[in-house]
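Collaborator request, handled under Task 6.
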Amino acid sequence: MSGLLDRLVGKNGEERDLQTARYIKAIPLRAYEDIDIIKAEVRAGNIVICNVAPLAKHNIEDVKRGINELNEYAQVIEGDIARLGEERVIITPKTIRIWRAKD
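Structure tokens returned to the collaborator:
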């Protein structure tokens, strides 16, 4: 606990920022190339909620390919990925885990 307290307050009593700000970002998947934008956001430490519906209307194969690529990417960076309903996927960096209910 003192390690966390030291990071918050510091050894000399001055307040410190824990980290650079991280965000939850909603990014629609409009084209397969948007996968690179999503990866960059997760690499920066942000959580991305991706709506795949815009691309699914035009090319379902690109959606499948993109989701597979994001799944592999999440594994490589030791992040997490999960479906949020039929049209959305959430991707997190290594420091965030997605809770899953046990059936």
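The cover message to the collaborator said: "The helical segments are 2-9, 34-43, 53-56, 60-76. The chain has a mean pLDDT of 87. Please let us know whether this matches your experimental observations."
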